[in-house]
Every structure is written in structure tokens, then in C-alpha cells.
Amino acid sequence: MSCTAHLLTSRTPGAVAVIQLVGECDAVVRALTGRSLPRPGRVALRDLAGIDSAVVTRVSDDSLLVMPHGGPRLITRILEALAQHGCPPIDEAPPPAVLYPEAEDEFEALMLAALAEAQSSAAIELLLRQPRLWRNWDRQKHPLHMLRERAVILQRLIHPPFVALVGPVNAGKSTLTNALAGRDTSLTSPLPGTTRDYVGVTLDLQGLTVNWIDTPGIGSTHDSLDEQAKELLRMTLPRADLIIWAAPPVAPFPPDEQELAAAGIDHADLLVISKCDLADPAEVEKICRSSPVPCLGCSALTGEGSAALCHAVAEKLVPVSVRRADSPWLFDERLVAAAEGGT
Q1: What does the alpha-carbon distance between residue 173 and residue 206 come to, in Å, rounded to a whole number?
Q2: Is residue 143 part of a domain?
Q3: How far, in Å, are 16, 66, 126, 272 from residue 310 at the CA level?
């Protein structure tokens, strides 16, 4: 069996890179380092042909992890050196069973691969249950088409969904974004039109990680920069998994078709009455009760409604009922082949 190299980390600058060698690695490592491989389960420090020093650990008889410094040029030179010694780099990752030799079976290996990729902490407990659920998959009780429908929702625990915050100018969207992020990510000002472009931030909303986009206010100035921002808005919003319309208490609720059309959307999934600390609580409650879609009041200044907003977004995107369902999660199509191979 030949040897191949797989870069498991990004080529962008980082502290440490991880390169996995799969196959007959002994001759390659000996030629590159001048020394033999460490025994399985052992860790050693090796000089890589004068290019860099790296931590080397032998995972199994045919799998080795090489961890040099993470500079892009260093990574390129190490991969080139490996190729010269008969271990060419392969863009795609090795099969999960090779990547995780400690796994009991294919179900567990696929679970570990998904666990490493998952962006949301809410995915952890759910993924850990999957090997057992797949080993005992009842095809009559949980038909494949239903698993695929559920997987569309649950995949948002692995790949963060896109949430767009939309609304009129001076609605407090940027202040709300900063409050949820716990830091300044957006410029804020009492002047209309301060946010002239997208401001994106990754947020953890009660265990669900989302890509949150604070969009330019609707109805701001009409110069070329503003028109460009609105055009980007119209191009990007169709890709959003969830659209939140935020407006202050003085704005009409729910927004009419003309307001939504100005934002390039035909609906909002969630309504937020921003700056609700400036309004009569009874009036906010009345507006929310009459809303055709979920609606709540929120104040970035006092924190009122922030937890409820996080819960509402998470529940809209990945409902708790879907997370808790005791059926297999089809997070990787290879699970079906593994299950059929075991029957």
C-alpha cells in the first residue's frame, strides 16, 4: 500500500498544522527525518529535513499525524518534501475509518468525523447517540425519506445557518447585534443609515451557532453607496435560512408589503420590536398578540427579551422536538450504506 498525505487543517496562517500520512509511512518518514517512526500511541519530536520541527504521533500501523508549525509556506514546503519521497498530498480527507482507527465501527467513525466538523455545541449530545441508533435502525418505524427530511433541519447544527436582521433605518439593529455578540461588531449611531453594508458575526444562540448578518437600514440615504448596499441585500437575502424584521415601537407592525419589498423580501419569519424599553409594555404585548408570525419585544439597552430572542431563533431553525426525536440522524449518506452492509 502506498503512502498519501492529507492536510487536515487550513492553509491559512495558524499556530499548528496537522498532516495525516496514510499507508506505508515508514520509508517516507525515515527519508524525511533520518529516524524511524515512533511506536503506535507514542509521540516524538522530529526534524523535517531542516524545514521545521514537528510533533509526530503514530495513530496506528498505517496512520501517522505530523504536526509542524502552521505557516502557509512551511506547509507547502513540507508537502513538497513528502511528495518527493513518494507520499503525494491528496486534497480529500481519508475515509473516517482511517481517520479514526479507534472507532468501533463505521457508524462511530462517521460520528467522530461529524463531531469534528459540527459548529454547534447542541450537536454534541445528539451525535454521540447516533452509533447506537444506526446499529438498531428500524426501517419501518423510521423510513429513509423521513430521515432525509429531518436531516435537512439537523444539518444546521453542523453547518451554521444564515440569519438576516432586516428593518428600517435607526431601528437599533446594530446595537442589538452588538449586544447579542457581547462586543462591538457594528457601528452604532442615532443618525439614520450608519450601517451602510453588511456586518456579519458568528453567534451562539443557546447552543446553536448561526451566521448573523446585520443589514443596512431600509429607507436611508439615496447615494450610490446606499444603492449598492441595497442591491447586495436583494442578492443575499434569498439565501437566508431565517429573516428577522426589527423595528422600533413607533413603526407599523407587522410591516406592510411595500416595506418588505423595499428590503427585497416577501416575508419575515420573526418580528422584533426593538427599543422596547421606550414603549408601554402593554402596547408591546398587544402588538405581539396580534402578529401573524412570532413577535417579541427586545431592548439592547436593558437586555430585556434577549434570551427570548435567542430561544425563538433557535426554535425556528432547529426545533427542540426535532432534536429530541429518538430516530437516527442522517448526517452522512454513508450511514445508509453502512447500515445496509450490516444487514
Answers
A1: 20
A2: no
A3: 34, 41, 20, 12
Q: What is the DSSP string of 214-277?
A: EPPPBT---SHHHHHHHHHHHHHGGG-SEEEEEE-TTS-SSPPHHHHHHTT-S--SEEEEETGG
Stretch 272-297: mean pLDDT: 90
Q: What are phi and psi of 137, to 5 degrees?
A: -60, 120
Domain with 173 in it: 162-320
Mean pLDDT of the chain: 87
- Cα separation, 285 vs 280, in Å, equals 9
For residues 168 and 218, the answer to whether their CB atoms sit within 8 Å is yes
Please check whether residue 280 lies inside any domain of the structure: yes
Q: Are residues 290 and 186 in the same domain?
A: yes
Tell which residue, 210, 212, 209, 175, has the closest CA to residue 303. Answer: 175
CA distance 61 to 248: 63
Q: Helices 334-341 and 106-117 sit at what angle, rounded to 10 degrees?
A: 170
Asked if residue 74 belongs to a domain, the reply is yes
Pairing of strands 208-214, 162-166: parallel
All 3 cell numbers of residue 41?
Answer: 500511541
The residue type found at 135 is R
**Number of C-alpha atoms within 13 angstroms, CB side, residue 258?**
2
Q: How far apart are the first and last CA of the chain?
A: 30
Torsions phi, psi for 192 (to 5 deg): -60, 145
The residue from 56, 78, 94 where one domain ends is 94
pLDDT digits (tens, 9 = 90+) for 173-184: 888 998 898 866
292-314 per-residue burial string, b: 16 or more CB within 10 A, e: under 16: eebbbbbbbeeebbeeebbebbb
- Cell for 187? 457601528
| Summary count for the chain: helices (H), strands (E) | 14, 13
> Of 122, 177, 129, 128, which is closest to residue 153 (Cα–Cα)?
122
pTM flag (> 0.90): no
Residues 71 and 185 in one domain: no
